[in-house]
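User: Predict the complex with uridine-5'-diphosphate-xylopyranose.
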Amino acid sequence: MRVAMIGTGYVGLVSGACFADFGHVVTCVDKDQGKIESLEQNIIPIFEPGLDDLVATNARDGRLKFAIDGAEAIRTADAVFIAVGTPSRRGDGHADLSYVYAAAEEIADLIEGFTVIVTKSTVPVGTGDEIERIIRERRPDADFAVVSNPEFLREGAAIDDFKRPDRVVVGTDSERARLVMAELYRPLNLNETPMLYTGRRTSELIKYAANAFLAMKITFINEMADLCETVGADVQQVARGIGLDNRIGSKFLHAGPGYGGSCFPKDTLALVRTATDAGSPVRLIETTVAVNEARKKAMADRVVKALGGTVVGKTVGVLGLTFKPNTDDMRDAPSLDIIPALQAAGAIIKAFDPEGMDEAAKLLSNVEYCKGPYDAVTGADVVCILTEWDQFRALDLDRIKLLMTAPIMVDLRNVYKDAYMRARGFVYTSIGRPDEA
Ligand code: UDX
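Assistant: Here is the predicted structure with uridine-5'-diphosphate-xylopyranose placed in the model:
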């Protein structure tokens, strides 16, 4: 099959490279000339484990190409994927669909023969209808079908999520489009991946419902963590105790500083707006959004408390800045709330993150960015773990103790355990776990 992928952001690039690896001929199209030139030299603009090799191999074998002008690729494509950004619109939280509709107009002018136009971008219910209308208006003669095919890729594990998904959702009522989509994903038959065919609106909603549910699950366990702290229970055991019930499931029950990233904050907000506009409010998700925002802001208080009530003139050594490990993505990372709050309270910030510091430097000012974890804790009055990068799991704690002015750790990801840290002479606080006797 011939595929044109419009947009070489996270989703477009991973999906394009994976479809090429399935054996299809893929052209990734982007208006950003610098980005395309870099990709042609195998320079990947994002950090995603395995993606550089996948791009290099498939480009070398001629299955993966890059282009600024997508005309040729779109004209000859069996399927054109729209994988452009849908950021939150300033002011009202709705998804900004201007890039999606601009792509639809471009596609309309170019397609030849039966073409399946697929939204990979996360788009609100009804967007497929509007894309269809735009194309039909510009090209009454065109032979096409618009399909919704949402992605469920986690950053840091995106290639595995693409190649071994729990399910693939395809929203269309066109039989011909369905056959094209089945052919595109045929290699997944080997893993017996369920293919779920639905109506287009249903498919569009599935994506939002999945993200909202996961965000709600995290927020639920975060509130349980607060309750655990108050009543003297252990949130990790609560999570295990409920997660072993198959109806609940054990994933996404890890308490922390609140969810961040490129999807959950944006998609929960967009779902709330869509539902409100439709006159069918989603109150659980409204509350999830509000509770998570408040949580991220409140996390700084834990550091203040650990230092006895004030951080004025104190140095905080921050380990981890990205919203989760194995990414350089800083979008809506809890660090973006916690660090400014600490600075406003008078703290001096030193920080280290294995991949996120370039991006962080654009968003956070007055931070001393350090070469490694030990640098970041040198002279610190407290060390705060904000992201659970693997390299923070085996820190040389004796060395850290010597480098700090006092051995105090605030662990917002529950990387360590209280008894273990106390045995090593640390004053330790974490999330939702009482002090062990
Ligand atoms: C998410 C979805 O998982 C994916 O299916 C969707 O397509 C895009 O959004 P991603 O944003 O890459 O993926 O990260 P994810 O691993 O889901 O984590 C999101 C946030 O939730 C992170 O800030 C993470 O730290 C937090 N989280 C996750 C928790 O606090 N606890 C958990 O148990 C799981």
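The mean pLDDT is 96.
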